[in-house]
Specification:
The complex is a heterodimer of chains A (484) and B (503). With 484 residues, chain A is an all-alpha fold. Chain A contains 20 helices and two strands. Chain A folds into two domains: 185 residues; 220 residues, no CATH class. The radius of gyration of chain A is 21 Å and the shape is globular. Chain B has one domain. The chains are: A mainly alpha (484), B mainly alpha (503). The interface between A and B is large, with 37 and 37 residues.
Chain lengths: 484, 503
């Protein structure tokens, strides 16, 4: 029976699918020079899909839908909204990209990947989960290598594909072992069936580690991080921004649901939380230290995103309701902030063709508003109020301290000061240094309308989540409750 | 519901900063006028709070409370007591005078004030002021740290963009990293307190009034007092974490130096008192000897280092370390006299050091050097600034009839009651301070003016004179009529002593 609940549970995905078909149908009717309008269609369509889902597709009590394949709850819903928002912003930022903007396929791939991510957030069955991860990943492999003829983009796409396939296969092996020991693929039944007592603890730990490899690749924690800088640098910048935000958040959605629901039993969780705590500490240290010597803004953001994965993991290892809520809140703030940072990098390189941090010299004189936006993004990444990054960091640290991980929080705060060094250093170029001839007035940075809309919305979002944080936290918390 | 004066004071600078950002970049005078008007508005409101504060009762007044994030117990909870009300007034005064000083002077030989991008300058300065005011009035630990961090990051931009081009990049980064390390360590301590309170009482609340009775165990207090107190005290310039402070002062533009030494260092001391000593009193008692030792070293060492400086601004910077050491010394007594003196010293030093930096800035803008031996005879061309500096100097030396005496005398009385030899050792600093202040007055303001300055150096502007006069008035009024401030601080001290168990 196909009930209205079932329909509501996949309403956003249905709408995205319809939007994707619309993109395919409409694109050939537009002439080449008008074809970037597909971006308006994609972004507008995604916002409409968000609105419709918000009005008609809100979950009530958590329920199982579609034969136990999907869990229909607030956690999944909130993640879906985040992904679709990130997708809409990315579509806007793609419009003026030289190689992506006029290609309808690019928008279609983005939408296809979004469907996969949305399903990742709600999958409650290992097979469904694996399918949705592949649905999300394969379009991204193509997008990363989209610029045919550009060596770095091809390298990025190929590297991303190879690492992605390898790690996903390892994860699939882990899934099959879990099934072998428990006899079920339903996450909500696994908790009872997959016990450390029934199988040797070491074997259980090994199996969970296999699964963590696949998730580690998605969220880019150390030691599965090394693809990130190369792929971000080589891939088209809008795609890099999408990879570092929505794709990473989708990995966390899986991590939260799979590990909080299926393996919370203390005899099991002790091993994987300890592993993840160590991984978090190493990610924060490695990410921040390797970001220090970077000169390319995309590589800088890549290493900083590895460090931010470490901060987010603090909320995961806490394994509490506050921890889960803090992860969701952190991801919301981080998606807004990092999309803003990548958006600025795109707008800047669109106008100048440059990507190095030192090329940003004189930005605040060339375009005071773009300078202020960059200030917002980078201070939010540093974790400064009144921007989203500050509140996010505080709730994550609070969750860590509540769970007794004081050493991890201390590592977090110390490395965040290292982070401050390179973020402020980049701002020094924007505000202090000048262009070689000191003639910034003659080199303004024009912003086309899609960039302006996306950047202003993202900036306001970063400030909003950092000042009026109650509604955002309450949503995150409403999602976190569903895990317990 | 009463008039929400504290939230209006706190958010005026933010609103002003946002409006200033909307003014076109080339409208420099309109920007300055708007900045001055909003600073004056803040000053008037802070004066109003100060004079309508009921000096007869202890506890918090003008209290406002709005739930902000009920799920985690965060609220916008504002209120002032006898210790923070003078600091709100001080912020108003320094903001007003800082804007006056930054107006600038378009005389060809003078490079005074802020000529480059004043729009961004005043916006960042006002965001800084927003954070400072927020810390002084917040009774919620989360919001206190929120505002505290807001007060930290604009400093980096203000120093690195408009600072002294020789050392600004180094000094700004050093200052920011020092303050950030301090504040994140204090943040960990604050979160530990939050969670310990949750375990003790089951209440998730950042409200400091409930934390006062959270019943932290003695061992908890002893463990967490040092991170919290020292984390905040870094901004108060406590030895051995004072190193950022003179470098930062010297590199900062004049108005920012005034803000930095005048108000920001009070922010550190105030937060260390409010969060460290008031919420963890048992820990404070356990570590009393250590704070007192650090403070005493800061007092004497700071004065001595100031004495040997050749750079005028470094001298003032190290004298700030010395005087802020006195504030910490007063805190560490835990008795009525010492705390009263600290409360007064925070205001007195704030006004005095703002005045010093203003005068140093005026001289540097005209002479283009700060080396003390190269200067001379300034009293002939800028008599008003000379008088101002002498009044500041008398305050700095702790002369009777000026606010410095009213503040320092109770501190020494308080210290004497705890450890008389600490008082004796620290009194050396008074002698050293007198020596370097007198020497500077003679060398810089009197004596012969070097020939290269003849005819080049002009008098300060009217706005500068208004700023100097404003700062001097407060120092003289408190000196002549201590009842202007002492009873108010007394009420704040009573409250602190009650938390300390009446020791």
């Amino acid at each position: 029976m196909f009930t209205s609940t079932m329909f509501a549970s996949i309403l956003p995905e249905i709408l995205i699918l319809v939007l994707g078909m619309l993109v395919l149908i409409v694109e050939p009717f537009w002439k080449e020079e008008k074809r970037r309008n597909v971006g308006w269609l994609t972004a507008g369509g995604l916002f409409a899909a968000m609105l419709i889902s918000f009005l008609a597709g809100q979950p009530g009590e958590p329920t199982s839908a579609l034969g136990g394949m999907i869990r229909f709850d607030w956690l999944g819903f909130f993640f879906k909204m985040l992904f679709m928002f990130a997708g809409a912003a990315t579509a806007l930022l793609m419009m003026d990209h030289e190689r992506l903007g006029k290609r309808g396929e690019a928008y279609l791939l983005l939408l296809a990947s979004l469907i996969g991510m949305n399903l990742m957030a709600v999958s409650s069955d290992l097979i469904m989960l694996f399918l949705s991860i592949e649905t999300a990943s394969i379009p991204l492999y193509v997008l990363a290598g989209f610029m045919l003829g550009d060596d770095r983009s091809t390298e990025a796409g190929f590297k991303y594909l190879l690492f992605g396939v390898l790690t996903t296969t390892i994860m699939l092996y882990g899934f099959s072992l879990v099934f072998g020991f428990s006899g079920t693929t339903d996450m909500y039944q696994l908790a009872g069936m997959f016990r450390a007592g029934a199988i040797a603890p070491l074997a259980a730990f090994g199996i969970l580690t296999l699964i963590l490899v696949g998730i580690g690749f998605k969220v880019a924690f150390v030691p599965f991080h090394f693809w990130a800088p190369d792929v971000y640098e080589g891939a088209p910048t809008p795609v890099a921004g999408f990879l570092s935000t929505a794709s990473k958040a989708a990995g966390y959605a899986v991590l939260l649901r799979l590990f909080f629901v299926a393996f919370p039993e203390p005899s099991l969780s002790a091993s994987w939380t300890t592993t993840l705590a160590i991984v978090a500490a190493i990610s924060m240290i490695v990410g921040n230290l390797l970001a220090l010597p970077q000169t390319n803004i995309k590589r800088l953001l890549a290493y900083s995103s590895i460090a931010h994965t470490g901060y987010t993991l603090i909320g995961v290892v806490a394994l509490t309701r506050l921890g889960a809520a803090s992860v969701v809140f952190y991801l919301a703030a981080y998606i807004l902030t990092n999309l803003l940072a990548f958006g600025i990098a795109m707008a800047f390189s669109k106008a100048t063709g440059l990507e190095n941090i030192q090329d940003y010299a004189g930005l605040s004189r060339r375009s005071p508003w773009l300078g202020l936006m960059m200030l917002t993004a980078f201070l939010s990444l540093t974790g400064m109020p009144p921007f989203g990054g500050f509140v996010a960091k505080v709730v994550v640290f609070a969750a860590g301290i509540q769970a007794g991980y004081i050493w991890l929080v201390v590592v977090g705060v110390i490395t965040s000061v290292i982070g401050a060094y390179y973020y402020l250093n980049a701002l020094k170029f924007v505000y202090l240094y000048r262009m070689p001839n000191q003639d910034e007035e003659n080199h303004p940075i024009p912003l086309s309308r899609p960039y302006a809309i996306a950047l202003v919305v993202l900036t306001l979002g970063v400030i909003l989540i950092g000042t009026i944080f109650a509604p955002w936290f309450n949503w995150s918390d409403a999602g976190a409750v569903n895990l317990f | 519901m009463t008039f929400p004066v504290l939230s209006i004071i706190t958010f005026t600078p933010l609103v002003a900063a946002l409006i200033i950002l909307l003014i076109p970049a080339n409208r420099k005078n309109e920007t300055r006028a708007l900045a001055l008007a909003s600073a004056a508005f803040t000053l008037v409101l802070s004066l109003w709070v100060y004079f309508s504060y009921d000096q007869t009762t202890a506890g918090y007044q003008f209290v406002e409370k709005y739930d902000w994030l009920p799920a985690l117990g965060v609220s916008l909870h504002f209120g002032v007591d006898g210790i923070s009300a003078p600091l709100v007034l001080l912020t108003g005064v320094v903001m007003f005078t800082g804007v006056l000083i930054s107006w600038g002077d378009d005389h060809p030989h003078v490079m005074a004030g802020i000529q480059d991008r004043p729009r961004e300058f005043f916006a960042f300065l006002f965001i800084l002021a927003w954070g400072v005011l927020g810390v002084f009035v917040s009774l919620d630990l989360f919001m206190l740290i929120f505002f505290y961090e807001i007060a930290v990051f604009p400093m980096y931009l203000l120093i690195v963009i408009w600072g002294w081009n020789v050392t600004r990049e180094y000094a700004a980064m050093k200052l920011t990293l020092y303050l950030l390390i301090g504040s994140v360590i204090a943040l960990v301590g604050a979160l530990a307190m939050y969670m310990a309170q949750y375990q003790n009482t089951g209440a998730l609340s950042f409200d400091m009034l409930t934390m006062e009775s959270a019943g932290f165990s003695q061992s908890f207090q002893i463990i967490w007092f040092l991170p919290v107190f020292l984390g905040f005290a870094v901004l108060g310039g406590i030895w051995p974490f004072h190193n950022w402070s003179p470098d930062g002062h010297v590199a900062a533009p004049t108005a920012v130096s005034m803000f930095h030494a005048g108000v920001l260092m009070k922010l550190g001391a105030f937060a260390a008192l409010r969060v460290g000593i008031m919420l963890l009193p048992e820990g404070a008692k356990y570590w009393q000897w250590l704070i007192m030792a650090f403070a005493a070293i800061a007092v004497v060492y700071g004065a001595y280092v100031a004495f040997v400086q050749m750079d005028f601004k470094y001298m003032v910077g190290f004298s700030s370390v010395s005087h802020m050491g006195l504030v910490m010394l007063g805190f560490s007594t835990f008795n009525a006299d010492g705390l009263l003196g600290s409360g007064l010293q925070m205001f007195s030093h704030g006004a005095m050091t703002a005045l010093f930096f203003a005068v140093v800035g005026m001289i540097y803008d005209r002479a283009h050097t700060r080396q003390i031996p190269e200067l001379g005879g300034m009293s002939k061309v800028m008599p008003f600034a000379t008088v101002g500096f002498i009044i500041g100097g008398l305050v700095s030396m702790g002369m009777p009839l000026f606010s410095g005496f009213i503040a320092e005398f109770p501190i020494f009385m308080g210290v004497w009651q705890v450890h008389w030899f600490v008082a004796v050792v620290c009194s050396i600093s008074i002698v050293i301070t007198a020596a370097y202040i007198m020497r500077n007055i003679r060398q810089v303001f009197f004596g012969n003016m070097p020939e290269k300055f003849e005819g080049h150096i002009t008098d300060i502007t009217v706005l500068d004179k208004v700023a100097i006069a404003t700062l001097c008035i407060f120092m003289i009024v408190i000196g002549l009529y201590p009842k202007f401030m002492a009873p108010m601080v007394q009420t704040g001290v009573e409250y602190v002593l009650r938390l300390l168990g009446g020791s």
